[in-house]
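Data deposition worksheet. Section B asks for the primary sequence of the deposited chain exactly as it was used as input, without tags or linkers unless they were present during the calculation. Section C holds the resulting structure in token form. Section D is free text for depositor observations; keep each observation to a single sentence. Incomplete worksheets are returned to the depositor.
Section A, Depositor: J.P.
Section B:
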Amino acid sequence: MRKHLVALVLAACIPAAAFAQKKGAGGGMSGTDPAASAGPSARSMPSSRDLVRMNPAALLVDKRKKLGLSDSVVKQLKAVQKTIDDRNAPLMAQYDSIHKWTMPLASSSQSRAMSPGFSDADKSSAAAAPSPAEQAKMESSMRDLRRVVADYRDRRKTDVADALAAVPDAQKQAATDLLTQQDADLDKLVGGRP
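Section C:
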């Protein structure tokens, strides 16, 4: 009986000790994590590639069989897809330019400091919270990024209209339903409506 009790106590203590070591070694979220201090919105913002994938014409091309679209309609939708990509390219470049400033600069130095040859002092200074100036820049960049996302949403209305214009009336309702679902997916991607 005593062996079973000792085995039970050890079984309970080993995972708890391993979790405590992992958390203390930087495995958990801590108050000094620069990305955590940037806020969840900075971490969760999608890349410009994620937004480009939300091209409504591209979705309809991908779902052409489900919608029963003819080859000529698919050809028109591919042309619309290219037009949308070209029209949004400057906005996506602006998004990329701003997005990089929403994450703390220390996070890139932190990854370099984790490589062999860096002392513990180097590692702890790399994991320090962002400076007030860096924090202000990140907050300003997040506001700018949200404005770009709002512009993207406004442009999307035109993109959807252009894509639906190429779809025959018989398939328009099914295409509209797919694009409504894509709008919901976009809301999840960028954190809901502003």
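Section D:
Residues 13-40, 107-115 have pLDDT under 50 and may be disordered.
The radius of gyration is 24 Å.
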